[in-house]
Structure formats: structure tokens, C-alpha cells
């Protein structure tokens, strides 16, 4: 009888395919975790755009004006000033308000949507821009990511025409200037 030579003994442990599957699983798990952390920390991306958000309308607005009043008869001193306040209803009957801080030369818009982080209001900087569109640009910019100095595009829908308009927005200090469409200018602050 011939004896067979002894076979080498393999150490017990995982096979090569099992190790490869384990490594691939760990890599996929780490990438998924990094994506979740990136989404949470850096904020969601997107182009802003068309969202169904019910407008919020404040209950009152106070307008203060100062007008000279004539001096009483016989008094040769200069005219004095008086202040008045009033509440102005919007065309829909609800009162609307604006927020102080509009850049000089722009027209502040009624606040239609709630504040978004730093962005509480908008104003228009050209005669072809409407306040309804400016407020939608404010919402689209705020929802497109975190505040930053780098210019970024947003898309907002004009409530007057229904057209989706691309605007390029750039932040400088606490004011964001958005331009685009047919000479539209929107300030967000």
C-alpha cells in the first residue's frame, strides 16, 4: 500500500471572496454616511424654483410721514413738523408690511412669505420687476442653500406671467443682489 503524502492544512478563516464582499460593504457604508453628513451639514442643493407655499400676510402696517405745518398767525418762526401714522390695507383687504433695510434707490416689497434665515424681505431695483416676483426670488434663493458670498443661480416663477425666470444672485454683506430675465433686479435682505 502506498501512502499518500500529507496534504497541507489551510488555516481556518474567511475565504477571499468573503473578504472582498466585506471590504466593498464597508466602502459603500462609509460613502453613504459621508453623503448623509454632507447633506445635513452643507444643506440641501437645488435651484430654488417653484414651490407651493401659502403666503403669510402680516396684520398691519404703519406708515409714518412728516409734513410741515404752518406757524400760528403772528409767529414769524419757521414751520414745525408733525408726524402721522396710518395702517394701509392691501388690495385683497388684508394689511401688508415691509421690512426696513432696503438698499437705497430700491422699492421695498410687501412681505408675502415668512423669513428664511437671514432673508426677511425683498425689494425691486428696476421698473420691470414686480414685488410678487421679488418675493419668489427671495424664497428660491433662501431654499437653494446656505448663505454665501459666491454667486449662484436660482429659478423663480413670475406670478404675473407664469414664466420660470433664471436669476443670478450674489451676496455682498447682508444684501443679496439678483439680476436676470429681462433687466429684472431683486434685492434680498
Automatic annotation (TrEMBL):
<keyword id="KW-0472">Membrane</keyword>
<keyword id="KW-0812">Transmembrane</keyword>
<feature type="region of interest" description="Disordered">
    <location>
        <begin position="60"/>
        <end position="104"/>
    </location>
</feature>
<feature type="transmembrane region" description="Helical">
    <location>
        <begin position="20"/>
        <end position="42"/>
    </location>
</feature>
<keyword id="KW-1133">Transmembrane helix</keyword>
<protein>
    <recommendedName>
        <fullName>Serine/threonine protein kinase</fullName>
    </recommendedName>
</protein>
<feature type="compositionally biased region" description="Low complexity">
    <location>
        <begin position="60"/>
        <end position="95"/>
    </location>
</feature>
Amino acid at each position: 500500500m502506498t501512502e499518500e503524502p500529507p496534504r497541507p492544512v489551510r488555516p481556518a478563516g474567511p475565504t477571499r471572496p468573503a473578504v472582498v464582499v466585506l471590504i466593498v460593504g464597508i466602502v459603500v457604508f462609509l460613502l453613504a454616511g459621508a453623503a448623509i453628513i454632507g447633506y445635513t451639514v452643507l444643506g440641501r442643493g437645488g435651484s430654488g424654483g417653484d414651490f407651493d407655499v401659502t403666503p403669510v400676510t402680516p396684520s398691519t402696517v404703519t406708515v409714518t410721514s412728516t409734513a410741515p405745518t404752518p406757524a400760528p398767525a403772528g409767529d414769524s418762526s419757521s414751520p414745525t413738523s408733525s408726524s402721522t401714522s396710518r395702517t394701509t390695507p392691501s388690495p385683497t383687504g388684508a394689511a401688508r408690511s415691509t421690512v426696513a433695510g432696503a438698499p437705497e434707490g430700491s422699492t421695498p416689497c410687501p412681505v408675502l412669505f415668512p423669513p428664511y434665515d437671514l432673508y426677511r424681505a425683498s425689494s425691486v431695483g428696476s421698473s420691470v420687476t414686480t414685488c410678487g416676483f421679488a418675493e419668489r426670488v427671495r424664497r428660491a434663493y433662501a431654499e437653494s442653500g446656505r448663505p454665501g458670498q459666491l454667486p449662484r443661480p436660482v429659478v423663480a416663477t413670475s406670478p404675473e406671467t407664469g414664466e420660470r425666470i433664471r436669476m443670478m444672485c450674489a451676496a455682498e454683506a447682508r444684501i443679496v443682489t439678483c439680476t436676470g430675465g429681462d433687466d429684472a433686479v431683486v434685492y434680498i435682505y
